[in-house]
Amino acid sequence: MKLAIGCDHGGYELKQEVLAHLKARGFEFTDVGCPDSSSCDYPIYAKKVTDLIRAGEADLGILICGTGIGMSMAANKEPGIRAALCHDVFSAKATREHNDANILCMGARVVGPGLALMIIDTFLDTPFSNDERHKRRISLYS
Ligand code: RB5
Asked: Is there a catalytic annotation at residue 134?
């Protein structure tokens, strides 16, 4: 599975921990930036991640900003993107099973790194249920 990950300045420090974790788990990933903690605009990095997913160059994405809210709003403007803002493990599991979410958004000012990594592992390790009712519901807005 190929991943794409992006952040703004609010998510930069947490992203460094996430990158180390993904490396340790052996995932193949593209880090689209931002490249440091200087102030920047989150929609730019949301678009870079959604472009990779829409092009089939990444299967799942992770977007981190201060709250995760701006990233999720920006990412969900793109066709075919189902970005889920999750700050708990239950939601991360449910959104993969029910919504086939293809991007996880998180706020680095909301969760600490320990919980963030648990949420990420849950999101990446949970497959879509493929249940007809969930496919039908997704098709109603996709
Ligand atoms: C940046 O200060 C902050 O607005 C951004 O990281 C994010 O939380 C936006 O939704």
From this structure: no
Q: What is the DSSP string of 76-112?
A: TTSTT--EEE-SSHHHHHHHHHHH---EEEEETTTS-
Q: Is 42 in the pocket of ligand 1 (CB under 6 A)?
A: yes
Which of 13, 42, 77, 110 to probe ligand 1 with, by most ligand atoms within 8 A of CB?
42
Query: Per residue in 54-73, pLDDT tens?
Result: 999 999 999 999 999 999 99
Give the separation between CA 115 and CA 120, rounded to whole angstroms: 9
Exposure b/e, 53-75, CB count within 10 A at least 16 = b = beeeebebbbbbbbbbebbbebb
Nearest-CA residue for ligand 1 atom 5 is: 66
Q: What pLDDT, in 10s, does the model give residues 83-123?
A: 999 999 999 999 999 999 999 999 999 999 999 999 999 99
